[in-house]
Design goal:
The complex is a heterodimer of chains A (166) and B (340). Chain A has 2 domains: 85 residues, Four Helix Bundle (Hemerythrin (Met), subunit A) (Up-down Bundle), CATH 1.20.120; 41 residues. With 166 residues, chain A is mainly alpha-helical. Chain B contains 13 helices and 2 strands. Chain B is globular. Chain B starts with a helix and ends with a helix. Chain B has one domain. The chains are: A mainly alpha (166), B mainly alpha (340).
Chain lengths: 166, 340
Amino acid sequence: MPETVNGIAFFLLAFATIGGAVMMLSTRNVVHAAFWLLETMLATAGLYLLLDAEFLALVQVLVYAGAVSVLVLFTIMLTLRRREDAVRPFEPGWGGMALAALFGGAMLVAISRAQLPAAKLPEAPPTVADFGRVLFTQWAVPFEIASLVLLVALVGAVWWSGGDRR
Amino acid sequence: MSPLAASLLKVAACLGLMLANGVVMIWMLRKVLGHLHLRYGPLEAGPSGIFQTTMDVLKLLTKEDVTPNAADRALFYVAPLAVFVPSLAAYAALPFAPELRAVRLDAGLLYTFAALSLVPIGILMAGWASANKWSLIGGMRAAAQQIAYEVPLLLSVLPIVMLVGSADLGRIVEAQSGVWAGFLPRWFIFDPLLLPTFVVFAVAALIETNQTPFDMSEAESELVAGWATEYSAMKFGLLFLSEFSNQFIISALAVTLFFGGWLLPWVPESVSVALAPVTFLLKTYVGIFMLMWIRGTYPRVRIDTLMQLGWKRLIPISLALVVVMGVVIKALPALARVVG
């Protein structure tokens, strides 16, 4: 019974993820595209949840769905001069198509060559405390480097945007 | 009972609580605000007007559902749901009693915040879809507000997680049982280190619930009804039901984090456990009363003042509090071990 439920949930979420991504690319309205992106992020969080990755799912919702998509929407709405500008024409060019084909081919090759790790879930899903312990012992240096990179990006963005003095 | 049926029942229970809370809180708001303004509030429908909200629900259900011509139809229909569903989801991790909650989550605190963080997106969606300048201004304010308050709100609960060593809301409540010095309950609000944390949390929570003095996204006196201007009938009802439900959730979170959750001080544990849901709800409604008191007392601040407050005051303060907590609970004991 639980496995059937999980299977159904997986198919629904997978459909929502891929469908959301397709809709995001095919819609002509930039605001709608931003909302489809949000839907894709939420569905991805659901997939994480199915794998018992509770913390990852929550952070995905909090950071990507809750914060990043608000920033995206905010930027889109601030830069739209008129409401009608939200709908953009679709103008495919040969350059863009070639680039897409190249990227698609590269991804296909990469995925078919990749050595996927044998899918084996641990007996009991690791708790948040386990996750924290590993993050701050085994992965402390990469974690610190990542935070440093983010800090530099933040300071750089503030400096770049200037403020009143420049 | 199959797990699926149990889950559906839990969702139904949360929904029931949410609806009941909406009805109670609207009546309470009218009464409390009325008396704060030296008025009576509703009087006619039932004793002290307690059936006023029931009548209002009937009215909302029978009203014409208007959709503006220029509105972005798809988003206009989705927006009330995008506000309502996260608000309903946020009930799942709240511990009403030792064993009474929808799910036991390892990171229950984070879960509640994650659910609430989706509400402003629904508000922004409603504001944009309405094709109305007031709505759009309201929606944009909600989004700008969210970016400003979310970081301090999350940081402000970090000292508690550090102290308890868990983000499970049930464990946080259990850590507050017992008394200090024979009479003072061991609630975190009485912890001198956590008192400033509560102040930061309270301000950020007021912004989170779009409460006066931070209700710029609704701002009746300047934006008609802000992001909800174009909504009518039950769509409007859903939007405001979620507003009230968010206030309930944030008050319940404050009770859980700082006021001992379902614990009663000075009584044997069996009594405390038996009365747990009643205690929890009573404490939560006292919190809601405080919110309404603030709402009836203070004027609205400007949006740029709020941005200043969020970015330049609350974030540095909450970061400093995290550092202080770290020093007190980790560095000082370590130092004591080295010295002693």
